[in-house]
Design a protein that fits this description.
Blueprint: E1 2-5, H1 9-16, E2 21-22, E3 27-28, E4 32-37, H2 47-51, H3 55-69, H4 80-89, E5 96-100, H5 103-111, E6 121-127, H6 128-131, H7 137-140, E7 150-151, H8 152-158, H9 162-167, E8 174-178, H10 184-188, E9 191-196, H11 203-209, E10 214-219, H12 224-233, H13 238-241, H14 245-255
Parallel strand pairs: 1-10, 7-8
Antiparallel strand pairs: 2-3, 4-6, 5-9, 6-10, 8-9
Helix pairs in contact: 5-12
Length: 260
């Protein structure tokens, strides 16, 4: 693990794009995925864990009722991975964490909450292909896993249920997969999800135990205003990442809020 505290805008960009060069491809194709948080103390907790109570027993009931009441035209295939992606996308507590391939999108989420501009933010950068080397053999044998994340079609063929995921290995592992392109929000945010092999496992705990390459990039509170203004000028805003009137009003409310 590497922890880096950046001190200016140029250093932010250099740090986010470090290690992106691929000698095999002779291209800048990063193997890192990113997650931005407004406070550096926040852990990589899922919304299911934050639900509290006996959330492990509640998980199947949440998903069962979501499938029962949701319109089936919202999913392109009746598999747990399609349903889980749609449910998480619409705010259901789930054992998924949001990530992005875009370092600037992660930077947006680290600086979107003006109420937390007095706190240092953080961007987690994880080499997801490196993490996939710790997958069980039955999952590592999938041909594309060595060069890209899973997609829901691949997972639907390999794991028919969350119980199958829980029972495939006695050793914890993390898996990264791309959701279906449900709407423009997922597409514009360049999204993917991570999921742990156990609903109680925390990704940050697992990363510390494994030989996985990851970085914690600390965004100082005093740098947030500059980053925010430059992201706005680059059109990395709620208006683009959350297409529709809700994203538009969120952008306008933040954009016109006085600094003092």
């Amino acid at each position: 693990m590497t922890e880096i505290r950046v001190s200016n805008w140029n250093e932010v960009q250099d740090t986010l794009y470090a290690d992106a060069w691929s000698p095999a491809l002779q291209r800048h194709r990063s193997q890192f995925v990113f997650r931005g948080l407004s406070c550096k103390e926040y852990r990589l907790e899922t919304t299911l864990i934050r639900l509290g109570g006996n959330f492990v027993k509640l998980e199947p009931h949440l998903l069962r009722n979501f499938r029962k009441y949701a319109h089936r035209q919202n999913v392109e295939r009746d598999s747990i991975w399609h349903w889980l992606s749609v449910a998480k996308h619409h705010g259901l507590p789930a054992r998924l964490l949001d990530w992005t391939y875009s370092p600037f999108v992660a930077l947006h989420f680290a600086t979107a909450d003006i109420e937390k501009f007095h706190l240092d933010g953080i961007i987690w950068a994880v080499n997801y292909l490196n993490a996939h080397r710790h997958l069980p053999e039955t999952l590592r044998s999938e041909p594309d896993v060595g060069t890209q994340a899973f997609d829901v079609e691949m997972l639907s063929d390999l794991l028919v249920s969350l119980e199958a995921l829980d029972n495939i290995s006695a050793t914890e592992f993390a898996l990264f997969f791309e959701p279906p392109s449900i709407d423009d929000r997922i597409v514009n945010q360049f999204s993917l999800f991570s999921i742990m092999s156990s609903p109680t496992a925390l990704l940050d705990d697992w990363l510390q135990k494994q030989q996985v390459v990851y970085k914690k990039i600390i965004i100082p509170a005093e740098l947030k205003w500059e980053i925010r203004d430059k992201l706005d000028q680059a059109n990395i805003t709620e208006r683009m990442l959350f297409p529709g009137l809700d994203g538009l009003t969120s952008w306008l409310r933040r954009h016109y809020q006085p600094r003092t």
